[in-house]
Amino acid sequence: MRIGVFINSVMHIESKLMVEDGCKLVNKNKKYDFNAYDLYALEEALRIGENYENEDVEVICIAIGDENSKDVIMNALAIGADSGIYIDDYNAELTTSNIASILKDIFISKNIDLIITGKEIVDKKIIGLVDYLGGILDISSVDSVIKLQLTNKKLCVDKQLAEGTHQVIKCNLPAIIGVTKGINIPRYPTLRDIMKARKKNVETLKAKDRENISASIECVTRIINNNKKKCNLITNEQEDNMELFVSILKNSIKNV
Predict the structure, then answer these.
(1) Backbone phi, psi, residue 122, to 5°
(2) pLDDT (0 to 100) of residue 223
(3) H or E element at residue 110
(4) Can you give the pTM of this predicted structure?
(5) What is the rounded distance in angstroms from the CA atom of residue 183 to the CA atom of residue 145?
(6) Residue 116: which H helix or E strand, with range?
(7) Residues forming a β-bridge with 172
(8) Cα separations (Å) of 138 from 7, 102, 135, 141, 168?
(9) Which of 77, 145, 149, 213 fits 197 for a cystine, CB–CB 3.0-4.6 Å?
(10) Burial tier of 194 (Cβ tally within 10 Å: 0-12, 13-18, 19+)
(11) According to the model, what pLDDT value does residue 256 have?
């Protein structure tokens, strides 16, 4: 059985962003992180591989983008994935629709039984991928999953709903699952794991050479809001600090 894990690199919270040529978003200090939700997805795939008794399980990590995405694949291989697929699509404006087109092609060509990913790409706020991909592939899809069990290629998942409630859903493979925090505690690689990852296979595909997965949206202009709110520090040494606190609230928060 093959499990595909879609993973992403996201900009670090302290990244310094600039816009070049009116649209190109540049991360000046080149700080990137592993998308947090995708760490849960990778951990869940690895646990399935360790506990599934019916047949051998191959975990394939999939990433789209520039060289930073390739680094995320190497990190996933160090954590425990068996192989990786890197789609070189540096200039693409990634959206739910063209990511789904790429994953559809990979799902079919690689005979993947189950795709697991995080429920959201946090820096681009891309959501809805799970249901979109499930629709175009005509397979089962469940998002915001907090518990997953796989037995004889049958899934039983808990879907998180509003106000702390959840829904139990059963479906057959093939399927795509979007996980959220709380489903597990991700593992982290050791130095030995990092060294072993260098020997694992990473297949590179060029998105621009494949008509069905080329970018479908062109960015015309991009604006970054650099206006930062002023921070007011009130200390015990200041006289009438409570009056000053109330005054700041009245001036900055209109509904007080």
Answers:
(1) -70, -35
(2) 61
(3) none
(4) 0.78
(5) 7
(6) strand 114-118
(7) 154
(8) 22, 15, 5, 9, 21
(9) 77
(10) middle
(11) 45
- DSSP string covering 202-237, please? EEEEEGGG-GGGS--------------PPP----TT
- Take residue 202 and report the two structure tokens written for it: 């990473």
**Radius of gyration for the alpha carbons in the chain, expressed in angstroms and rounded:** 22
Calpha distance 123→90 (Å, rounded): 16
What is the C-alpha separation between 181 and 36, in angstroms, rounded? Answer: 8
192: its two tokens: 């030995």
Name the strand (E) or helix (H) holding 13. none
- Other C-beta atoms closer than 10 Å to the C-beta of 21 total 8
How many CB atoms neighbour CB 151 within 10 A?
10
Q: In the chain, where does DSSP find H-type helix?
A: 36-51, 67-79, 96-109, 129-137, 191-197, 241-252
User: And the tokens for 151?
Assistant: 């037995």
